[in-house]
Amino acid sequence: MENSTNQYPTSAPAQVQSHQPGDQEKMHPEPEIIKSTHKGSDKLKDKVAVISGGDSGIGRSVAVLFAREGADIAILYLEEDQDAEITKQLVEREGQHCLLLKGDISDPDVAKLDIDKVLQHYGKINILVNNAGVQYQQKEIESISNEQLEKTFKTNIFPMFYLTKEAIPYMEEGDSIINTTSITSYQGHDELIDYASTKGAITTFTRSLSNNLMKQKKGIRVNGVAPGPIWTPLIPSSFDAETVKEFGKDTPMGRMGQPSEVAPAYLFLASDDASYITGQVIHVNGGQIVNG
Fold this sequence. Notes:
The chain is α/β, with parallel strands linked by helices and 292 residues long. It has nine helices and nine strands.
């Protein structure tokens, strides 16, 4: 979906999906993936980008935008084959290659195998976008089972370590790692306690890794993006219908954001335009002030 009128829906109808991370094609309205006004200018020409959770939502928007800017793409996804195939088609429509890698990257062996496959296919990695995640709405901490707690951490933060450890030896000075954190890392969230905790870990991971890689003189930049309420499959698959109906209305802009409005932050951080930026987080959240 491309937007040509620059008018965005304020909210979405009440809806739910029963399975995470959700299917984009079942959403109504469907999220906007890329702005029709964006004209590629080869900012990422000849680069190879690996994007976890790249089959839908923010990951899909990043993949298509990166492709429009000249990058070949590798998408790591859990099991949403239809969403992944659509993303592949959208990337190829931009004239770039797209490798789909299905599997659970919370397993370190799968993460290693995926990076190996990317290297076999493309021969290099220039950009790593750590984006995969899950969230489960619980109204009180007593409702967070030990199983849920473990799954949230194993999905949201562990794979960032696994993928980054495998990719860094093949990345060079000027390459970029971008981690998806969240506004909840800074403000917390009363019904997403475990999720917000993982996002806090991701913010600290970003800052710590950036310092480490600069001290190691590798020249690899590490930054993050902290989205606010963005309309992605994770929303109807993790919140109740009434929450979905009100989603994003409490922002200063009074509406939910679209993946197409977040992806340009990733593009900026991945490109040479951000050559003097590392250890930072860009906040794309509809005007909420976090001072972080």
